[in-house]
């Protein structure tokens, strides 16, 4: 899969045109997502009739805009993020993770703590945008954000090493315990930062994150939303050991690893028991990663998230079935934007779909180093 796209892009660069590549120059679902969820650079989601914005949504959307070669959207999203979540200066502080809109249309920061997964995706998108668009501003912001992440969210733990906390506050205990989120540890991003910044914390963070991912998949190959390390050992207690809306991203990140990535096969092997069950519809909404007990049917975004993993394991029937479920639930809309009352619904399912389908459709891939390649960057799309 990755080699096919890589050779497609190389072919475009050499010949100036490859007929199949023109289908990948435009990304209809990204355009649809913008119409449904983005307002003047602010990524909105409706939850219990409340409109909110998260640093995660802003960061993911920066990544999708980069993949789509949509610099205008990238700049709008970045400017809104800096102005509202970083109090006007991303060089001075990490973005707050939660912004809430009031009934009168005014918004405010509801929680000033940062979220390290959003910080990682944001810094990665900025650095790669600097490379793609030759922008000193993007590169500088990305570099300064990387330094602040390492300063505020890297934490040394005895018997585990330097780990990436989920945020600056609330995840490290006085006794030396830490509560970690495996889905925050996307290997391509940590690879990229370890390669770019080898003299800092990043090589150690990459190493500890690999251990967290592999250890958290024990004993049944299912990823938990959270896992706690205390007294030199993992504590798999309820409710942390439940795998659900956070953990679904672990399967997504692993599925998108480059074929030559050193973690790919160990992680696929560790996931094998769970991967076998993921072939069936629907993906469980919740699973006890120790007992194996399942509960509920996950939404269609869960099907989108497991598409790369199913493809990597050559489960072609599962790919077709999960893809059909996503297409049925979120069809490409060619009839214009939704009514205002229907906007902002289903944000999380949409972003999981953009990741899963975007990779499956060969719109982007990560090299072993973590560097991004996107089909829309081909000269024929210019």
UniProtKB/TrEMBL annotation:
Swiss-Prot/TrEMBL catalytic activity: Endohydrolysis of (1->4)-beta-D-glucosidic linkages in cellulose, lichenin and cereal beta-D-glucans
E.C. number(s) listed in UniProt: 3.2.1.4
Keyword entries, A-Z: Carbohydrate metabolism, Cellulose degradation, Glycosidase, Hydrolase, Polysaccharide degradation
Keyword Hydrolase: yes
GO biological process: cellulose catabolic process
Gene3D superfamilies hit by this protein: 1.50.10.10
Organism superkingdom: Bacteria
Membership in a protein family: Belongs to the glycosyl hydrolase 8 (cellulase D) family.
Protein name: cellulase
Protein species of origin: Spongiibacter nanhainus
């Amino acid at each position: 899969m990755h080699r096919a796209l890589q050779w497609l892009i190389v072919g475009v660069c050499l010949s100036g045109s490859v007929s199949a590549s023109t289908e990948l120059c435009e990304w209809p679902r990204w355009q649809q997502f913008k119409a449904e969820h983005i307002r003047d650079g602010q990524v909105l989601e409706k939850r219990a009739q409340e409109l909110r914005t998260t640093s995660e949504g802003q960061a993911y959307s920066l990544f999708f805009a980069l993949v789509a070669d949509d610099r205008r959207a990238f700049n709008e999203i970045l400017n809104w993020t800096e102005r509202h979540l970083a109090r006007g200066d991303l060089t001075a502080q990490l973005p707050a993770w939660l912004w809430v809109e009031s009934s009168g249309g005014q918004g405010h920061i509801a929680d000033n703590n940062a979220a390290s997964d959003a910080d990682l995706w944001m810094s990665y998108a900025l650095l790669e945008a600097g490379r793609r668009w030759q922008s000193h501003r993007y590169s500088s912001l990305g570099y300064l954000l990387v330094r602040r992440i390492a300063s505020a969210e890297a934490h040394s733990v005895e018997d585990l090493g330097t780990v990436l906390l989920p945020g600056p506050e609330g995840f490290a205990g006085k006794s030396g315990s830490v509560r970690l989120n495996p889905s925050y540890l996307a290997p391509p991003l940590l690879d990229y930062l370890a390669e770019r910044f080898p003299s800092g914390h990043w090589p150690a963070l990459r190493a500890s994150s690999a251990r967290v991912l592999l250890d958290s998949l024990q004993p049944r190959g299912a990823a938990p939303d959270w896992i706690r390390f205390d007294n030199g050992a993992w504590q798999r207690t309820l409710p942390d050991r439940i795998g659900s809306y956070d953990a679904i991203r672990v399967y997504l990140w692993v599925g998108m690893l480059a074929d030559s990535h050193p973690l790919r096969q160990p992680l696929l092997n560790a996931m094998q028991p769970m991967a076998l069950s993921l072939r069936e519809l629907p993906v469980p909404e919740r699973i006890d990663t120790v007992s194996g007990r399942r509960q509920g049917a996950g939404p269609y975004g869960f099907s989108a998230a497991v598409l790369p993993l199913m493809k990597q394991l050559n489960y072609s029937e599962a790919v077709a079935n999960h893809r059909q479920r996503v297409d049925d639930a979120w069809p490409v809309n060619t009839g214009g934007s939704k009514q205002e009352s229907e906007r902002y619904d289903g944000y999380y399912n949409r972003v999981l779909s953009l990741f899963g389908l975007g990779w499956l459709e060969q719109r982007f891939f990560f090299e072993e180093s973590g560097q991004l390649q996107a089909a829309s960057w081909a000269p024929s799309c210019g």
